[in-house]
Amino acid sequence: MSAVLIVVIVIVVMILVGVAAVAGRRAAARRRLEKERLAEQAVAHRGEAEVRAAKATDLSEQEQAKRAEATEAAAEAERHARLAEEQRSRADQLAEESDDTSARVERERERARRHGAKAEEIEEEL
To answer: Whole-prediction pTM value?
Structure first.
């Protein structure tokens, strides 16, 4: 019986070694597949990172262009505001001169009426 028991034990051990070898190969295959999957994911993420970096660079250039345009627009607005203030001042000055001239016109008309009336008085005396 001991020979049969030894043969059975050897067969069981061989079966266990075979099962362990198959399980080891399967585990190695799973690890290899997982490693390949992770490598593919890493490549995909690198590609996405490059795309995002290129987009960020493009947006940065756009931002700089917009900022420069905004600066120019602000300078132009300041120049227009200065011109508007100058024109407003000139308009106020002209309005004041117009009022002064209007008052002079009225004074001259009044003088003309007085001289006309004086002339009529003198003509009546003649």
So the answer is: 0.49
